[in-house]
Automatic annotation (TrEMBL):
It comes from the Bacteria. NCBIfam families: birA_ligase. It catalyses: biotin + L-lysyl-[protein] + ATP = N(6)-biotinyl-L-lysyl-[protein] + AMP + diphosphate + H(+). SUPFAM superfamilies: C-terminal domain of transcriptional repressors, Class II aaRS and biotin synthetases. Keywords: ATP-binding, Biotin, Ligase, Nucleotide-binding. It comes from Erythrobacter insulae. This is biotin--[biotin carboxyl-carrier protein] ligase.
């Protein structure tokens, strides 16, 4: 079920607040806002949210049998990648890349953002997708579906239905087939092994190397200049060619 409101501060904050008040929300429930006045991005940044894009959050009630919760971030990334890829012309498919862990890039520019927040055994997954506008983000190139394909149907209502369907599919695959299948599907949509990247770690350090694939837990394996391989579990990744 998709509940749409005209404006709210942040759909993620709303769902976290409702869960905190003891409300239980079912898997498949989405709260979508046509615009947000206090959209939240990763790392405490703001997510500028004018009308015309997608801003929506959904619920995953974790089950004992589920794979590790943090890998849901890649489930969300794949769902957005599918939705964006489907809406662009076939010849543009190669330009749509997942960047670890869940950024979706078109021609190297960020087109979407995903923010996972946990409340007990519930994961709130918030997704913003630039349909008509590409708000500026410091030090990042941004784009929108309309910028990439002027013939695209920018109807946010249909785009939202498509996103919910892709997420539901990806969630079912994650539950049924586990992380082995998830990582293989993610890797097929992501920057190839050998891509030059740099990682901005939470302590401020920046480390460069080449992407050496995913670790068994979904971490990013980074091959350093001296040949050693480090596994990174948190950090902002830049593709060197991104600039
Ligand atoms: O910084 C990022 O890349 C993550 C951005 C996540 C934005 C979405 S929009 C819907 C949901 N509500 C929020 O306040 N943030 C997320």
């Amino acid at each position: 079920m998709i509940e749409t409101v005209t404006v709210t501060g942040s759909t993620n904050a709303d769902l976290i607040g409702r869960l905190g008040s003891g409300e239980s929300l079912a898997d498949g429930y989405w709260l979508r806002a046509r615009r947000q006045s206090g959209g939240k991005g990763r790392g405490g940044r703001a997510w500028v949210s004018p009308e015309g894009n997608i801003y929506a959050s959904t619920i995953v009630n974790l089950r004992d049998t589920d794979p590790a919760a943090h890998t849901l971030s890649m489930v969300a990334g794949l769902a957005v990648w599918r939705m964006v890829t489907d809406r662009l012309k076939v010849q543009n498919r190669a330009k749509v890349l997942l960047k670890w862990p869940n950024d979706v890039l078109v021609s190297g520019a960020k087109i979407a953002g995903i923010l996972l927040e946990r409340h007990g055994s519930v994961i709130v997954t918030g997704i913003g997708i630039n349909l008509s506008h590409a708000p500026d983000i410091a030090d990042r190139k941004t784009t929108s579906l309309a910028d990439e394909n002027s013939e695209m149907d920018a109807n946010p209502d249909q785009a939202m239905l498509d996103l919910a369907a892709c997420f539901s599919d990806e969630l079912a695959i994650w539950r049924d087939e586990g992380t082995r299948s998830l990582f293989a599907r993610w890797q097929a949509a992501a920057h190839p092994v050998g891509t030059q990247i740099s990682v901005h770690e939470s302590d401020g350090a920046i480390v460069a190397g080449t992407f050496a694939g995913l670790a068994d837990d979904g971490g990013l394996r980074l091959c350093l200049a001296n040949g050693a391989v480090r596994t990174i579990h948190a950090g902002d990744v830049s593709l060197i060619a991104e600039g």
